[in-house]
Every structure is written in structure tokens, then in C-alpha cells.
Amino acid sequence: MNYRKYTQESINVSEIGFGGWQLGINSGWKGMSEQDAIDLVRHALDAGVNFFDTAPNYGYGTGEIRLGKGLKGVDREKIVVNTKFGHTNEGDTNFDANYIRTSLEGSLKRLQMDYVDSLIIHNPPFEYLDGNNNNHYEILENLKEEGKIKAYGASLDTYEEMKLLLETTESKVVEVFFNILFQDVSRGFNMAQDKDVAIIVKIPLDSGWLTGKYNENSSFEGVRSRWSVSDIKTRAGLVKKIKEILPNDLNIIQAALRFCLAYDAVSTVIPGNTTIQQLTANLKCAEEELQDNLVRELEDFYLTEIKALNLPW
Fold it and tell me: Which of these CATH numbers, 3.40.50.2300, 1.10.10.10, 3.40.50.11030, 3.20.20.100, describes 3-208+252-290?
């Protein structure tokens, strides 16, 4: 396992991290028992993973509870835990600054921890990212001083969101929507490096599209039902072209994860894992780097054939 810089206050983190959305009950994934969830976390630890991402709304709080149980007994100084604020454990949203402390205290209780390494605002409306017009960031600074968090920031999807946050706050962590099909935030990578801001890459496999398991005839339920027939056809066509770009000895999952890790600004990538087999396969993807010429080719493909499409998430 390779490790990369996170924040000034934390240890270096595994470049493949553990996304904890799948651990909770009713999280939108196939059902996972509590023991399976704990075993998955512990297998990740044994494999060298030390970065864990979660949130109050993952399984209505059960994601944090199960992650906490999986991490119980581990030296707290040897792991890095990121949780969020804004989407509540009751399934609604509450971005009110006065709710930050209540939300964090709930997360700490469920995780069985005294602090988290980072607390980020969970995909808030654009205006909440402006540190000049919100008191969220003063409260977050207070929580840092109290030792309940080591750093803060936001989970976001676009360069404009990232730019506003980094120009108006002292945020040191961003969780960004970035993959071969969505490269907009990469325009802010240099800014993040200049400001010593850690980058967590979310949705690196584009909700399953960059695993190669979907095609134009695929149908979806739950949160993935957001895609129209036209959206599915468009994405399937793009994935087919990406596969044609890749050499025969490189599958699309390997390419997708290695593409994200090709950027020095990225601290860690958090693919979803529902089984130990998936986790093991994802970890193996990081054993080799993507060649520079292939990175450039995938960047060019985005600029010439994807960017103007404004693909829906």
C-alpha cells in the first residue's frame, strides 16, 4: 500500500481509502449484515487501508455505528476518519450552522471516538461554501480548537464550488466528484496544492459505469434510476470508447482508479466495496501507475467528447 499526504495534523493516508456508504442498513446497496460490515472494515485494515470515510446519513446512522465497531481496538493515531455534516441520520438535510455541533457529537458517539480527523459539509447548496457570508467556518474553527476535529472542508462536485470554498475559508479538506467522465474539478487541483488542501476523490467508478458492467440495455433501480434512457445510451457509448482507448492488458476498473491516482494533488480515492473480493480487487488496482501518455489521452477524450455533454450525475 502506498500512502500520501492528507492534512498537516494527520498521518499520511492510504491512497485507496474505504468509502463507508455501503456499511449501513437501507443504504441502497445489497443487504449487508453487521458482521459482514465489521469483517469488511477489518479486512481493509489488514490490507493496509487507514483512511475511512463515512457520514451520518449512511444507513440512517448505522454506517457510522458499524464502522466504529469495525475500528474498535485499533490504535486511533494510526487511522484517519472523515465524516460529514448536512445530511442527517434521520434521512433529511440540515445545513444550519447551529446544527454542526449536534451532528458531530452524534457522529462521535456512533463511531465511539473522541475526535475525527476531518469534518466536511456534505454537498451543501452553493451559497454555504462562501466563508464570507456564513458562520459555519467560525464554528468549525472552534471545534478544531476544542480538539474534536483536526480539519474541515466540504464535499462538492464542481470547480466553481471548490474555488469559492478555498478562496473564502481555511478549509483543508475537499471531497470531490472526479473520474474519467467527470474531470471539471481538476482545474482546482493546483489551487488545492498551493493551499495545502487534501483531496479525497469520491465516485471514481462513476456509480458503476467505469466497472464496465453496464451497457445501453441496462436498467436501474433506487438512486440510479435517475438516469433516463438517453442518459444510459450516452454513457454506454462513452464507456465503449474509453475501453477502445485502453491497452488490452488494462481493464477499465484499473484504468479508472489509476487515472484518479495519477494526480499528485489527490490524497486518497474511495471506491465503494460491498465484498472482500471487491475490496481486494480495488486495492490491487493501485499496484501500478497509469502511463503519462494514457492519462493525457483520457484528458483529451474528456475535453473533446465529454465536457460539452454536461452529463448528469
Answer: 3.20.20.100
